Amino acid sequence: MTKWTISALFLCLFLSPAAWAGKHILPDACGSNKIDFNVKTEKDQPAPAAPEAGKAQIVFIESIEKPFGCRAIAVSCNPTVRFGADGDWVGAAKGNSYFAISVDPGVHHLCTTAGKDVGMDSFTAVAGKVYYYEAKVTIKATSERYDGFAGSKAMSGSGTQIDRQFNFSQVNEDEGKYRIKISELSTSEPKK
Known about the structure:
By secondary structure, the chain is mainly β. The chain has one domain (26-190). The chain has helices spanning 3-15, 17-21, 173-181; strands at 37-42, 56-65, 80-85, 88-94, 97-103, 106-114, 117-125, 130-143, 160-171, 184-190.
């Protein structure tokens, strides 16, 4: 590296507020970045009951796609995903799991985070309706090291590249109900 490249790199680091803060800046729809969750999941739980009278319901779903042997590569294979509504964290999920909350009718601003990945959306809730939102984490691992056999690649700790994708979006009722059937119920509480 040249002297100018090194100088430019240090200048960028010193001028970056996020580098000084130690955590990234979150949208207003999220809660405090200081709050993390302990998450437990339970298999074979019934689907959430219908929304309370005069309320709407939001079902937050985390789905994850990961490579076989994910633990062998140095990456979190089951990240905790935090979900927020209107400026407060409402819970978290881990792995393929879900939870539901009740909200008043009207406009709501949603946020989700997995590490430094952030997703947002807003919608207008109608009493008696159920809205399904999915945070999808996709982890792919590729190796740049060839094992000598006609261009095949070997998975190993060195040379393995991790591609993590994150998407947060509303899903339709059929997709939401299916995701609940194949997922575990998530319960969470803020860490103390």
